[in-house]
Write the structure tokens for this entry.
Amino acid sequence: MPAQLTPAALARQFALEVSAGLIKPGQKELPSKYLYDSVGSALFEVICALPEYGLTRAEERLLQLHAKEIVDQLPRPVVVAELGSGTGRKTRLLLEALSRWQSTWYHPIEISPSALAVLRRELRDINSISIVGFEREYLDGLREVAARRALGEHLLVLFLGSTIGNFDGAAGSDFLRGLREILQPGDSLLLGTDMLKSVHTLISAYDDPIGVTAAFNLNLLARINRELGADFNLQQFTHHAIFNEETRSVEMHLRSRTRQNVAIPAASISAHFDKDETIWTESSHKYSQDELVGLAQHGGFRRQAQWMDRSWGFADNLWIAK
Ligand code: AVI
């Protein structure tokens, strides 16, 4: 089992990835996982409440309406593992529905210890649920949950919120294959996917008029200042959201207003930016039905059911490992 990374090792990894992304030739980039420090996570919570960002509310509506139906389709007994736990509002709906049938082990898997603590607090009042979280990368944590399950127990993996869309290119489908390899036939995956919709709706969702998403994006530079001693001047970068028709993804970028150099001492680099050069910080892929069919097939899953919120365009997909 891979050991948990120490804070010093995490800081080293952050410095290495920042350095690699900012000195490489061509498009500069930073991994989107680093958007979520405590400030970024709090800003993401606010994004979820924005009228322009309908994704989270759409999934909440789906689970409010269909949690019982979803749970009725699962083999029992079932152990629940969740990849990236969020605040638990959506998970609560599923766990409450499950707790009417059985006492349930719930294992949130999340690299942020503070997010795990919030979740434990939020969900502790649900009857017949025992929570044991794992502070791990998704698939490492899932391996641990799978290794601990008792004979005859099935696994339900929750991967909600269309977080799968934040994997770039083929990485999403590779991730699903990796996930499937940890499961046994008959285990299930509930996968949230944001569907393709008008470019206007998408750009409003990722470039909201009061600037919360801009702050969420710029906080990544502020985090590099805080944690790596860099001297990014946040006034000299602006947030941009574009829709990439080819990859069917909304991309977030930070654009340099001017020609400038930024020192990042803990990463031992000075990064040069031309005027209008961008750092690509996140992709958020939007799905079509055909693509979901292909993803399930390629991943080794049978599509059991799908619940669709048509007012926003969001699907929760229940897939069974073949
Ligand atoms: C977490 N993830 C699914 C969000 C998304 O929509 O891709 C992150 C986000 N980025 C900007 N707004 C929301």
Observations:
- The longest strand covers residues 301-309.
- The CA atoms of residues 308 and 318 lie 11 Å apart.
